[in-house]
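Appendix B. One record, verbatim.
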Amino acid sequence: MKARTFDELLDAEYGVAGTPEREQFDADSAAFSLAVTLKEERLRAGLTQEQLAERIGTKKTYISRLENGKSDIQLHTLFRIFEGLGRQVALTIF
């Protein structure tokens, strides 16, 4: 059996970088990663979804949708959420 790199596996499954399928996969992966990070930070802060929602002036259902990757998030809202968790967000563009 020939060993393959992760990039080769992604290319085979979703197409090479720049194709619509690969772009969608990359976007979905980033959204999932953000959702996991949001949930982990909320739990680390000892807050329920409802408590976090109250802190930032939104609804529990919105927090739930974000944590499940079912909703897009605006940058302003992302900053508000992490402020509500007592954290800061650093944006890196590369």
